Amino acid sequence: MQSLTGYVIYSPTERHQLSAFLQAAEQVRFKPQAVIEADTASLSLMFNEKKAKTVLGRALTPQEMRQTLSHIAVWQQIAADFNLQDEDFVLIAEAAQQPQAGFSQAAITYANTYNGYGLINLQHTAPESHFTWYQTDEPLEALVSQNKGYYNGHGAGFYLLKKSLAKRLLTELATEKMAWRVEDFADYCPLSQLAQARVLLSRSHRPLINTKQTPRFSIIVPIYNVAPYLEQCIESVLSQQYAHYELILVDDGSPDQGFEICARYAREYPQVVLLHKINGGVAQARNDAIRLARGEYIMFLDGDDYWSGTQILSELSALIEQRQYPDVVFTYMTSVYPDHVHYHQLACEVMQGDLHQHFEHLYKKGVYVGFCMPKVIKRTIFNQPDTFFPAVDTFEDVVWSYRLVKYLHSFAIYPNTFYMYRREREGSITSTVSVPSQIDQFANFMLIMDELELIESQYSALYPMMKHYAREIHQYCMKCFELLLPENQQMLSEQKEKHLAIVQHYLSDE
């Protein structure tokens, strides 16, 4: 689509809203549609109020019924417009909305990018931490979910509707009375036809009413070029004999069939949430999912790995309750090589307690490691500064894990290994050795030294062990450097010397 037609619904008693809205209309040709002013008796004849009360848990208000009828009147105009093709989208708005600058081109981009759907909601009343407001030229992302809660009850003030879907809805209304509000999209549209913009194009000031149960776990899976492994990964979570979780799949602009695989699961399973975004790297993908997550605890799973067992979440949940909701639960990983599997054991005598008090023991026993996957983190921890993943392409969880220590006070250990971590071959680190990854390691070490300074000044009891931890990160960094080709070592010689000077300054007395 190169241009967009629109309708704006307004109240005749509040024409100032219509005037303000049209002034912000940009390139969209909006046609005004006055709110339907039917009396209560007439409204009752048009709605199946008994069924609606069962669905909503209360009676529909006359205002909700008038709003719904007003939108249906717009659908009728769309269906009858011979200038529109069946696959064309139309933008439907309410005059009380405040569109973001640049919304018109962004709406066209949404229509072209997500043209496989019939209705794309471009606003949402959820807190801003779950969504972002559109800024000019910002990459546009959308959520696809089988969970009705992402689509229902969050406003119908700004959405794209395809003509073919409008015709289908009107055909169904010809034989059955309405039992829904227009803003409850998933009650009258097939879920396979719905998408929810994550980058919102219009502001709504209605408060969020969230009646969904908060899940115990949010499992975050960043996805990029892992299609051959993805079904095994997803199925290993869906096989859990436990209900209170959400599985957030983040398609990071993967060029393979990853999105199609994820979309199929999102359509079929209500606990699966799919975030489709422009490629920004694994750190950004995890960060976006953390902002979206609703669970009490957050878990990380890579798209080419998988879980072994069906009682993992139920056992973790029981452990969390038994240990009185610790900040973190430590698990461990099994290494899956092409020709064999290596089962690691957690040889730790302390199974719960104060993390700062026992940090030396946890680190030396290999319980506290640089990976994010063996950590089940209480979601409120991410309200603290510097708890999101740094914007680097590799080794992002090394810095993240180092920074996290100071915020984790209580811990518990889940003794059963279930995370199946694919590796190239035993003892090999060559797959992580390259010039870009080495540059990332040098940059990461600067961030770790900044953190070490903070720990020395504010968490002195942790300082000796955190200094030792930093030195081991340095040693791994140099091990990777020595595996580079000689010409690449020469290319990075200046960065290496700067790195060694930093090590000498901060760590020389160990």
TrEMBL record:
The keyword Protein biosynthesis does not apply. It comes from the Bacteria. Its EC number is 2.4.1.212. Pfam families: Glycos_transf_2. One of its GO terms (molecular function) is hyaluronan synthase activity. Residues 218-331 form the Glycosyltransferase 2-like domain. The keyword Glycosyltransferase applies. Keywords: Glycosyltransferase, Transferase. This is Glycosyl transferase. It comes from Haemophilus pittmaniae. The gene is hyaD.
